[in-house]
Amino acid sequence: MRHSIKKQLIFSFLFITTGTFLMCWFVNLLFFELYYMQTRKQTLQDTYEIIDDWSRNGDINSEEFDDTLLRICSTYNIEFIIADAGANIIKTSMSDYEEFLSQLQNAVVARMEEATDADGEGAYIITNVLDEERAIEYLVMWGKLGDGNFFMLRTSLEGIRDNAHLANGFMFNVGTAIVVISSLVILLISKKISDPILELTKISERMAKLDFDAKYTKRGDNEIDVLGSNFNKMSETLEETIRQLKNANLELQKDVENKTRIDNLRKEFLANVSHELKTPIALIQGYAEGLKENVSDDPEQREFYLDVIMDETMKMNQMVKKLMTLNQLEFGEDKPEMEYFNVVSLLEYFIQSSEIITKQKGIEVIFEEPSPVYVWADEYMTEEVFRNYFNNAIQYADGDKQIRVSVTPLEDVGKVRIGVFNTGRRIDEDVKKRLWDKFYKADKARSREYGGSGIGLSIVKAMMEAMGQAFGVENKENGVEFWFELETK
User: Fold this and answer.
1) Is the pLDDT higher at 383 or at 223?
2) Model pTM?
């Protein structure tokens, strides 16, 4: 990361620490000697005031004064001499004081006019004096005490400069060590501060990609940890919100697809119904107009016209009933009512009721009656499914003209398979896929002849799907078998 907060914290702290150190060291380098000089001047002035107070009180020759003065001089490295007006030594801290006394005399005589008044009776001068012989520079204070005696105090400036140099060197070394130690401390502190922030950054990046598995690990109770906890709550809230939105979107998508499907079904339904009703309506209209216009006076011909009208009307009525049944099934309005009944009895009764039709068409029906088989299913729907299969078998039976009804238990899955086989032409594979579509007719000429509307197998499909059971068609060696399954447990 180019502008890492960790680097920014480290560089900021280092800049402040190093800058503060350099500034202090630079100020110390420039002004420490001056400050020290002013302090020593103040020390000389304080020493003068002490000596002046003792001299005014007449205690200058006491042992107590000697102890006080000795302590001050040894503490601050001050040399002194006190002499009277006749240049006689009263007090001194030096063994070789002749030169010092000579300096005092010369200074007093030559420069007393520059002296600073002290309480109106004494006076002093503070100046720098270079001892050329020894190459030592002194800070010298001389003047007159309140009792009329003269004094001189001096302290070496070399010691002051040495102390300033030593202090600057010590400060530089200590400051460098402090910067190094501070750098390590800053590194640890910045790591402690920046690591949670970097973790939050990575979590936010993953959240931006809708990855909500990442969670912040709490380390304490500071503001960053509170922010991390809020991140975790926000992540959970966003995940739940997105989940709800996806579910809502899925439901909406299903509603849109369902609406589209319903619209397509309605359009397809209207188109197919219009197509299917066109022929019977045209026939009814044609024969009705023929009767009205007395096309034929032959009673038998008129009777034929009436039979055609009634036959087409009956076909239209059957088709409308099937369409209503199919519509109710597809829209879930006709739900199955599950019952436990003997399906063999139902098949046997239906086959017996259709015996007249099969004999008229010369069809042999083979049904080897097995023992009773009880199933869970909608009895009405089961009969309708079998009715459609059986009627189709009657219509398309050919060759040996046989229909075989079979009831095969499927004990391993707790079901029974009911099959209706008829001899005749096999069904092409591409036709098999469309047999269950509404209004689809594999053989339009024969369907019209037998009154087929292409709805029967669609009703079978809708009923079997409503009961949740399997169904299908298979080509056999010499014919076709339609089958469906029902639960026995």
Assistant:
1) 383
2) 0.42
